[in-house]
C-alpha cells in the first residue's frame, strides 16, 4: 500500500520474478506488468483494481495483493486490508510520507494490520534515507526500526547493509535482472566507516527493541549487557517479529525496485516479521471451530467464466462442487471450480485450507463483503455458541451481527453525472453492464432520477467516473454519453418551525383522515438521517402501530430538500400530535407526514451545505505563488505550507464545486511539475452570496430550457 507512484506495482513485479513465478521483468511504463492487467491500467500506468497473486518464497506460501494509490479507489485498498494479515507500506525515498500514505496508514490502523516500511526509489535524484525515516517518525507517529542502511544514495546507490547480521549486500552491476548479489561480512580493514555506522545502528536497534519487548529486555540485560555484538541474530529477529505483530514499531528496509535492488531481503523480512494467519486471532473464529468461514472481498467479471469471487478463508476448507451458504444474502450457492491466482495464470486446485485466498467460479449472487459459511445449520450452531458465551460475559447480544465478518464501510459518493445509452433499445444492456460493475465496485452507486427518468452514476471522483465510462465501452461494447459532472450538495435548516397538515380522502366507501402537527428543528450534532422524536404529550404506545409509516414519511420527505432537491441533513423532527381515523391506510399516513415535513422545511430558513475537500498540492518553489493565487480564486482556505526537500507542500481545504477539472489547470500553471491529492473532508455551510449565485444558476438553468 502507498501513495500514487511510490512503486507498488513495480515492487510486486520484482517479487514475482525473484520468487520464480514470472519469466521476464514487467515494467509499468511498457504496460506489461502482471498485476495491472486491465487495458485502462496499462495505458495510464496506474493501478485501478487491486490484484491478488500467490507465490512461494523459501518454503513459505505468500498471498500478495497490489493495491491502487489514487484516492478515488481508496475503497479497493480498504477491502484488501480487511482480509490480509500484514502490509508493506512503500515509500518514495525522495518524498517520504505523502497525502495518500497517511490515508492508507490510517486504514491499516483501523484493521490492526502489522506493517513493514520499504523505502523505494533509493536511486532517484533527491532520495534521502534520513529524511524518509524522519517523516515516518513525525507524520505517521510510528517507531521505525532501521534493519538496513543504504550504501550510497541517489546516483551512487549500489547496495545496502544488513544491520542485524552486519553484512553488506552488493548487487552485481553487470547482471541486468538483479538476481546476482553477494553478501559479505563488514570488515574493519575494508570499510571501517561503514562498520562503525552499522555497529551504532545495531546497538540503537537492540535498545529500541528492548524498550518495547520485556522478554528481549531480560535477555539483553542478563547475558549480553556487556557486549551487544555477541547477541545472536535469531534472538533479535524473533523479538522484532513480536514487536511488529504487536504493532508497537515498524521495521524499515530500503532498495530500488526499478533497479532490482533490495527486493530479496524485503521478501525475507516479509516471511520473517509479518504474522502468519495462525498468529492472528479473530474473535469470531472460536464460534466456527473447524467449520468453513470465509469473506468474499472482491468480484471480477470474466467473459468466459462469469463472476469470479475472491475470498479469504478464515477457517475450514473449500472444495469445488461444495455448496455454501451466504449469510448476508441468505442464499445457498455452489462453487463449481476453485482456482489459485498464480500471477496471471489461474491454476485449478482440488481444495484450499484456512489462511489462503481463493478464486471461486460459479457464485452468482455473492457480492463484496459477504460472509460465507458451509451451511445454514453451521451458522446457527455458531450463533448458538456465540450466544452462550455472550450471555456469560455481557448479557444478551445480537447474535446475527456477531457472526457476520465486518464488511467494509462504503464511503458516500460526492460526484455524480447522468449516463445515456446510444439509443433507447440499448438501455437494458447498459443496466446489465452497470449491475455487473456495481457488484465489482461497491463505491459506484447507480440511481434513477425520478424527475427526468435518466440514469445517474455516483462515484468517488472524476477519474473514477471516467474509468467506469471507459470500461462500459471496452468490456460491454456500449458507446455511452456522460452528462456534465454535478456536485452532491446537501441542505439543512437554521431555525425551528411548526407545521400542521390534514389529509382527508374517500376511496370507495372508506374514508381516510389524518391530522398531524410536527416541528422541524436543526440538530446540534451532525447526522445524515433525520432524528425522529416524540413530544412529551404524545403517548408512545399509541404511536407504535404507526411508527413505520411515520418514519417512512419523514425519510422520504428528507430525500429531496426545498432548495435544490438535495438530501436534507442535520434535522430533527418532533411529533406533537397525530389524529388518525380508524381504518386509515398506512400509505395515507406516510403521505400526510411527508407533506407536512416538506411544508415545515419550506417555511424554515434554508441553508445549502457543500462538500469540502482536503487538498494537498506538491509544487516547486518557483510556481508556489501562481498556485496560491489560483486557489484563492477557488475559495480555497490554506492551512499550512510545508517544505518537503526542494518542494513546497500546500495543505488546505477547497470546495468540491471549485475543483472540477483542476488537474488540467494545475498542469498548465506549473508546466506539469506539480501533483495534487484530494479527499472528502466534510460538508460545510455555503456563505449567503455563493448560495444565491448557485440557486440563480440552477433556476436560470431551468428557465433557459
UniProtKB/TrEMBL annotation:
One Gene Ontology MF term: GTPase activity
Domain of life: Eukaryota
Stored InterPro entries: EF-G-like_DII, EFG2, EFG_II, EFG_III, EFG_III/V, EFG_V, EFG_V-like, G_TR_CS
Keywords, sorted A to Z: GTP-binding, Hydrolase, Mitochondrion, Nucleotide-binding, Protein biosynthesis
Main location class: mitochondrion
UniProt keyword annotation of Acetylation present: no
Binding site for GTP: 2-9, 66-70, 120-123
GO BP terms in the entry: mitochondrial translation; ribosome disassembly
Keyword Amino-acid biosynthesis tagged: no
Subcellular location per the Swiss-Prot or TrEMBL entry: Mitochondrion
CC per GO annotation: mitochondrial matrix
Catalytic activity: GTP + H2O = GDP + phosphate + H(+)
Tr-type G domain ranges (all copies): 1-278
PANTHER family: RIBOSOME-RELEASING FACTOR 2, MITOCHONDRIAL, TRANSLATION ELONGATION FACTOR G-RELATED
Function, in words: Mitochondrial GTPase that mediates the disassembly of ribosomes from messenger RNA at the termination of mitochondrial protein biosynthesis. Acts in collaboration with MRRF. GTP hydrolysis follows the ribosome disassembly and probably occurs on the ribosome large subunit. Not involved in the GTP-dependent ribosomal translocation step during translation elongation.
Similarity comment text for this entry: Belongs to the TRAFAC class translation factor GTPase superfamily. Classic translation factor GTPase family. EF-G/EF-2 subfamily.
Name used for this protein in its record: Ribosome-releasing factor 2, mitochondrial
Species of the source: Trichechus manatus latirostris
Lineage: Eukaryota, Metazoa, Chordata, Craniata, Vertebrata
